[in-house]
């Protein structure tokens, strides 16, 4: 071990004296003498077992991390108490001496040392559990399952033991549980499960905790069990589940995050973890954790002051506990939705927080480095005398030892280095946890009074339009199920909200919208805490509700989206158009493959999250209307692709694969029509889709439940419809409309692509060919893409009678206008009135159908703007008409978007759009009427 500063002479002499007393006739071994000088515990161990010196000096043994059982060669049922306890204690003494040697003489990395000690502890506890079980079973018989297998007692290790980061002289926190209430068989007399496992637990505790001539294995602390010291020593799975669901407290959630079963995994482990997971990790973003941990840390700080604990590297400001709080707070906040954060290991959790972009790699590296440095100091302090201490020494000998081990000139330099580490930790802790909420700026008394008295006139800048909304909100509160904590948070939040609304000069309608959001989350305290703990999120909520009624409705319908308001940089920056498919793939890597319910929720949450980001960018002018539609269309395409993959895997799992298919080439494709086909998806658009495949009925799938390929693709399409149209807690995904398929609602849900072609050639109506103009394949392998493109082009380029085509297009348009137009003399229906969006779409479709035979280039695009550009370039219409139609089309769609965001329907003041209406109507006349004989 390289060190700039030698051991003080007095400390060196202590080691040499001890070595000579143990090995009087031997040359002093430098490493063993150093060990003896640095650790009183090592001195006592070698006094007890001097032969261990040779074992320690064996380089192979020093490198060995294989953990053997202390009771491996014993018949556990025949091993009496004293023999078992002696074996356990001597094992502990031997291996803890080895760790002391590794740390003090070999500069072993602290991460390796704490992991090694944890594995050794696992072995000691598991061996004691097996021995205790065998001893009790010898007298009372064994609880067995239906197959005659013994039902074990599960031991849950908590705290640092659970996290595989046990410190050198730690006590251990355990919780015991058993899977089934089954009476014993085969003993002198049968006993109930509770009696049996209580005896096992008592014997296990005795084996580890009792002090004998060989010392103690571990101090066993059982106070973390349900009901604490007053609770039963061991509980059944069922009883534990009831307790944590009905009575589990916040600090128990925090503690249970570290819970890890000890021993060799058996069939009951997954059941036990599943039982606890909903208690520890909430499925929503859970900011109540922050306030709870802040209170816990505050109580710890009070205890530190009360006990006059100074220089405490665990509990003091910036100590080990604060690192744990930071990491575990972020795990508990997000772990319900991000399963990779559900780990007991602090170091692994730090890595996953970086992977999930919750923390930067720089922040995580600094926390890790500082945490390990504090753990190293703690390790040294405890190795000195095998005492559980985290307080820096005040005696000269241990100060000198610590200075040497930390490579410092004197104790003041030691303190300075440790204080620097703790200052960096505390800074990070304050950012994540803090002692006061960021929003705890004492709100001006006027807003508090206005809330408490339900009177907005008490504010300096009262908006009397808010009064009715405030009164209505207060009235609803009297009927709401809101607990004490929720009411406390609301009383802090509402004055802040009134202040934000005042700053934003919000209208009464905006206040109503935000009240609607609050009404939806009023009984879910976690969401109230999110807004209170994150002033930026509250600010974004106010800003967006002021901009858009649709956004307010969207958030109130799906409160989980409140989490999106925390980071404005993400909120107002939609995913790049080309990245939606990759992002949803990455998102689904965290979703369990076979959990259909979770997959359906994940699809909906992905859509809602990204729609909110697009809407936020739209409402604040970051995106133009054309870009908004591009983003909403790209989002829909990504979701369709992911849904096809989910449905495909479910069908393949059940029926096998159709011939000549793979996950990449499924022989299945999705054709989009209408707004999706034309890159014009809106916020509440349904999706007009047609499903096609390239198989016939003569081939079969290769699974155990083999079916013909046509049936397979029908079931695949039905599964897709289920994924999209089923109403879950998060609503439907999209309304899927498949009536544009051949033969409409009476036709097959999934049709062979060549049959689709045949239908288009021989049976399709003109309006179906109009629809084909705005169609494109949005999912499918290259060969299907190419074939569909050829089919579409061939059908659209057919020769047509111009006068007959005009007549049919005009009749269909008049029919739609009669049934769907909602305008009047003052209001203009942007979509269906004469001179509106649909007129432009019909002009575009007619131009393609009438001219594509001469100009096949008109079939290149499926969106109106680019088709009109090609029509002008090819001389089908004038450039002036093209410009007028495109300008009107974009104006209408922009207005439609703005009105959609504010939920104002689609009728705008006619007077504001007179010029566009006239130009579009004139274009209609020119295309369909004026040139009737030479179009």
Helix content: 55-70%
The 3D shape can be described as: elongated
How many angstroms separate the termini? 94 Å
Rg of Cα set: 36 Å
Strand elements, count:
14
Number of helices: 39
Class by helix and strand content?
Answer: mainly alpha
Largest sheet: 5 strands, mixed
Mean pLDDT: 88
Percentage of residues in strands = 5-15%
Low-confidence segments, given as residue ranges, are: 302-308, 435-443
Brief characterization of the structure:
By secondary structure, this protein is mainly α. The strands form 4 sheets. Strands 2, 3, 5, 6 and 7 form a 5-stranded mixed sheet that branches.
How would you summarize the topology of this molecule?
Blueprint: H1 9-22, H2 30-38, H3 40-48, H4 52-56, H5 59-63, H6 81-105, H7 110-140, E1 141-142, E2 154-157, H8 159-162, E3 172-178, E4 185-186, H9 193-209, E5 220-221, E6 234-236, H10 237-246, H11 250-256, E7 260-261, H12 269-280, H13 288-306, H14 320-334, H15 346-355, H16 361-385, H17 396-405, H18 411-432, H19 445-453, H20 467-477, H21 484-503, H22 508-521, H23 525-533, H24 535-547, H25 549-557, H26 568-571, H27 580-588, H28 596-619, H29 625-655, E8 668-673, H30 674-677, E9 687-693, H31 709-725, E10 736-737, E11 750-752, H32 753-762, H33 766-773, E12 776-779, H34 782-796, H35 802-820, E13 827-829, H36 837-851, H37 864-873, H38 879-901, E14 907-909, H39 914-930
Helix pairs in contact: 1-2, 2-3, 2-6, 3-6, 6-7, 7-9, 10-12, 13-14, 14-15, 14-18, 15-16, 16-17, 16-18, 19-21, 20-22, 21-23, 21-24, 22-24, 22-25, 23-24, 24-25, 27-29, 28-29, 29-31, 32-34, 33-36, 35-36, 36-37, 37-38, 38-39
């Amino acid at each position: 071990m390289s060190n700039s500063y030698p051991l003080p002479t007095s400390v060196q002499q202590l080691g040499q004296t001890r070595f000579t007393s143990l090995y009087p006739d031997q040359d002093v071994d430098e490493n063993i003498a150093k060990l003896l000088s640095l650790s009183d515990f090592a001195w006592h161990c070698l006094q007890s077992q001097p032969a261990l010196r040779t074992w320690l000096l064996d380089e192979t043994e020093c490198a060995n991390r294989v953990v053997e059982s202390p009771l491996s060669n014993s018949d556990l049922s025949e091993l009496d108490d004293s023999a078992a306890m002696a074996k356990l204690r001597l094992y502990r003494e031997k291996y803890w001496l080895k760790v002391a040697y590794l740390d003090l003489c070999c500069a072993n990395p602290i991460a390796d040392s704490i992991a090694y000690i944890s594995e050794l502890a696992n072995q000691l506890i598991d061996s004691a559990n097996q021995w205790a079980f065998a001893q009790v079973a010898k007298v009372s018989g064994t609880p067995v399952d239906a197959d005659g297998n013994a039902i074990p007692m599960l031991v849950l290790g908590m705290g640092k033991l659970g996290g595989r980061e046990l410190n050198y002289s730690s006590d251990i926190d355990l919780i015991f549980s058993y899977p089934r209430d089954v009476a014993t068989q085969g003993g002198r007399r049968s006993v109930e499960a509770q009696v049996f496992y209580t005896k096992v637990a008592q014997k296990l505790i005795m084996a580890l905790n009792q002090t004998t001539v060989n010392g103690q294995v571990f101090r066993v602390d059982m106070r973390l069990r349900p009901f604490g010291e007053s609770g039963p020593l061991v509980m059944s799975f069922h009883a534990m589940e009831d307790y944590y669901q009905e009575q589990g407290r916040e600090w128990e959630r925090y503690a249970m995050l570290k819970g890890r079963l000890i021993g060799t995994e058996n069939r009951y482990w997954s059941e036990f973890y599943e039982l606890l997971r909903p208690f520890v990790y909430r499925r929503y973003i859970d900011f109540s954790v922050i306030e709870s941990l802040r209170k816990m840390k505050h109580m710890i700080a009070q205890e530190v002051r009360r006990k006059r604990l100074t220089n405490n590297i665990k509990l003091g400001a910036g100590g080990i506990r604060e690192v744990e709080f930071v990491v575990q707070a972020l795990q508990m906040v997000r772990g319900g939705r991000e399963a990779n954060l559900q780990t007991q290991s602090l170091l692994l959790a730090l890595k996953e927080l970086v992977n999930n972009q919750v923390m930067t790699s720089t922040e995580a590296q600094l926390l890790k480095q500082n945490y390990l440095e504090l753990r190293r100091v703690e390790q040294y302090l405890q190795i000195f005398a095998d005492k559980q201490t985290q307080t820096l020494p005040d005696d000269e000998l241990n100060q000198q030892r610590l200075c040497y081990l930390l490579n410092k000139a004197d104790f003041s330099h030691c303190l300075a280095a440790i204080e620097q580490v703790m200052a960096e930790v505390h800074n990070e802790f304050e950012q994540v946890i803090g002692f006061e909420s960021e929003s705890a700026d004492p709100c001006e008394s006027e807003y508090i009074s206005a809330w408490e008295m339900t009177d907005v006139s008490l504010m300096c800048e009262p908006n009397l339009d808010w009064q009715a909304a405030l009164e209505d909100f207060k009235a609803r509160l009297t009927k709401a199920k809101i607990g004490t904590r929720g009411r406390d948070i609301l009383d802090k939040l509402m004055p802040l909200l009134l202040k934000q609304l005042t700053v934003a000069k919000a209208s009464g309608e905006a206040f109503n919208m935000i009240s609607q959001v609050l009404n939806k989350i009023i009984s879910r305290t976690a969401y109230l805490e999110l807004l209170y703990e994150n002033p930026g999120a509250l600010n974004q909520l106010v800003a967006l509700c002021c901009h858009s009624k649709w956004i307010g409705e969207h958030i109130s319908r799906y409160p989980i989206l409140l989490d999106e308001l925390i980071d404005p940089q993400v909120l107002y920056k939609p995913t790049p158009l080309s990245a939606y498919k990759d992002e949803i793939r990455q998102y689904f890597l965290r979703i369990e493959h076979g959990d259909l319910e979770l997959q359906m929720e994940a699809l909906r949450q992905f859509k809602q999250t990204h729609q909110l980001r697009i809407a936020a960018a739209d409402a604040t002018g970051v995106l133009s209307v054309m870009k908004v539609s591009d983003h909403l269309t790209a989002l829909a395409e990504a979701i369709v692709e992911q849904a096809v993959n989910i449905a495909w895997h479910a069908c393949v799992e059940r029926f096998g694969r159709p011939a000549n298919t793979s996950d990449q080439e499924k022989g299945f494709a999705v054709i989009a029509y209408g707004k999706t086909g034309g890159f014009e998806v809106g916020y509440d658009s349904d999706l007009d889709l047609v499903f096609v495949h390239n198989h016939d009925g003569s081939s079969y799938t290769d699974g155990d439940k083999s079916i013909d390929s046509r049936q397979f693709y029908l079931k695949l399409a039905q599964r897709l419809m289920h994924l999209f149209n089923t109403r879950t807690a998060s609503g439907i995904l999209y309304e899927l409309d498949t009536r544009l398929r051949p033969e409409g609602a009476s036709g097959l849900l999934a049709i062979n692509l060549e049959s689709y072609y045949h239908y288009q050639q021989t049976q399709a109506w003109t309006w179906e060919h109009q629809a084909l103009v705005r169609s494109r394949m949005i999912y499918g392998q290259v060969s299907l893409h190419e074939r569909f493109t050829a089919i579409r082009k061939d059908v659209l380029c057919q020769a047509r009678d111009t006068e007959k085509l005009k007549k049919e297009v005009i009749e269909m348009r008049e029919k739609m206008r009669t049934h769907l137009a909602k305008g009047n003399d003052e209001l203009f229906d942007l979509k269906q009135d004469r001179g509106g969006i649909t007129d432009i779409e019909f002009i575009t479709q007619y131009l393609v159908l009438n001219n594509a035979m001469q100009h096949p280039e008109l079939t290149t695009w499926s969106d109106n703007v680019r088709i009109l550009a090609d029509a002008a370039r090819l001389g089908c219409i004038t450039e002036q008409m093209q410009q007028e139609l495109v300008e009107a089309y974009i104006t209408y769609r922009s207005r439609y978007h703005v009105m959609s965001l504010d939920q104002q329907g689609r009728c705008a003041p006619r007077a504001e759009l007179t010029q566009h209406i006239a130009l579009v109507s004139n274009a209609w006349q020119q295309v369909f009427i004026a040139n009737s004989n030479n179009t």
